Structures are given as structure tokens and as C-alpha cells.
Amino acid sequence: MTMYVYGVHPVEELLARASNRVEEVVVAGDLTDHQFATIAERVDRTNTPTRTVGYEELDRLAEGGNHQRIAAKVSDYPYLTLDEARAVADRSDGHGLIVALAGVQDPHNLGAILRSAGALGADAVVIPKHRAAQMTPAVARASAGVAFQVPIARVTNLAKALRKLKDGGWWTVGTVADDAQPLWQIDWQMDAVVVMGGEHKGMRPGVEKVCDFRVEIPMAKGVESLNVSVACGIALYDRLRSLKG
Questions:
Q1: CA proximity to 100, closest of 81, 76, 125, 80
Q2: Of 14, 72, 193, 212, which one has the fewest beta carbons inside 10 Å?
């Protein structure tokens, strides 16, 4: 099943990062309009087919989303297997980083996490196949196009996948709400899997049990928790700061 990534900036980023995934760019109006200048340049450079459509058709293709008169048709998202994701991470320079999401269900949170993962050095993201957000146009838009830069692996059982990574020499770092060591005390000199819980119930006990380290982000009194995408960004930044410091 193909999908349409819509919006000026997401289409720009998609053409910059994964033009080989784009089958065509569709526009309501004229691609020579000034707001499409970067898209037009990238379309010319990559020889990407373009097609002019009416507003009603573009509304339908974007499923009612704020398309800003532009969308890109992409082929099925190329999910990886866990072994393929680990192989990508094993080839990275320095210490590998995989982000594992334990039931993140909001597409906007998944998109924001993918954006942070791409910006802060993650090699891959692992998501469950069931009861979790999957790759959609809304996710691609929330990620500002970075969703097609960071490989995503889908697994049937996240706890089992984490145990397999541990058997391969990876260390699992679970972010929890309380009763854990502060995030900044972790020594990130390791191949790490950063495990983030879902929006409402956090991690299932079976997933939390697999984590080698339990960390929390200390917060001001009266604040119980952070949005999962914000917490993920903080954790990934702390790792990058520690390794670069």
C-alpha cells in the first residue's frame, strides 16, 4: 500500500533524504510558485515525475491533512527485521544506539521521536507490530521528513527482541517515572538500546524486567512526567553530550 507524504517541508526533506522512495510529486497549482522553489530544484535534480491535480483530489490523497498544495507519493515503508536493524547499528561509528518504543500509540509522538532519533545519532528505531503507532503520512509529517532517514524495525514481541539484543552484547536502558537513577549518571560508553514506555501505561512489566538500567529524568516538584517524545529527546541528547564531552 502506497501513501502520500504531504506538506511543503516534509516533501522537501523526503526528496533530500530518500528521493529513491518517491514515485511522483503531486501539486495543486503550479510547481513554479515561490513556496515550492526548493521542491522544484530537488525534483529537477532527481528527475522525479510530477503531476498537477485539483484541490479536491489532493485533499483526498492527503486524507484531509494540511497538505499546503503539495504531496509526494511513496512506496511502502521498508520496515527492517530486528537482525537487519542490528546490522545497521553494528556498522555505525563508535557506540551503537537503538531506540525501542514500548507501545507509543500517538502518530505525532512517533514522528517527533523519529526526528530526535535522526538528529541525535540513533542508528535504528524498533516498534511493536501491534498496539503501537505505525508509519503513516501523519508520522512522516510530524518527523519533518526524517522518518525516511532512520531505519525502523517492527517486532512481534518487544521483550523477546530486547533479550535477543542483550544476547548480542547490547545494554538496555529503560526510562521510567520513578525509583531509578538520574539519567546523567549513566555511562554511555556502550552499545545501548534506549527503551521508552507508552504514553499512558509506560512499560509493561515484562519489558521493564529486561532492562539492564532504569533511569529517570528528575523534574521540578509538582510535575509528574514528560511527553514521551520530549523524554526521548532528552535521553538521546544526554547520551550524545556524554560521548562528545
A1: 125
A2: 212
d(CA 85, CA 159): 16
126 has which bridge partners? 100, 153
| Domain spans, the chain | 3-74, 82-244
The CATH number of the domain covering residues in 3-74: 3.30.1330.30
Q: Is 151 helix (H, G, I), strand (E, B) or coil?
A: coil
What is d(CA 44, CA 55) in angstroms, rounded to the nearest whole number?
23
If we measure between CA atoms, which residue out of 134, 125, 234, 111 comes closest to residue 175?
Answer: 234
> Left if phi > 0, otherwise alpha if psi is -120 to 50, otherwise beta: which for 186?
beta
Residue type, 17: R
**pTM over the 0.90 mark:** no
- pLDDT tens track of the chain, all 245 residues? 678 999 998 899 889 888 888 999 999 999 999 999 999 999 999 999 999 999 999 999 998 889 999 999 987 778 999 999 999 998 877 799 999 999 899 999 999 999 999 999 999 999 999 999 999 888 988 887 788 889 999 999 999 999 999 999 999 999 987 778 999 999 999 999 999 998 877 888 899 999 999 999 988 887 777 899 999 999 999 999 999 87
CATH of 82-244, one of 3.40.1280.10, 3.40.50.450, 3.40.309.10, 1.10.10.570: 3.40.1280.10
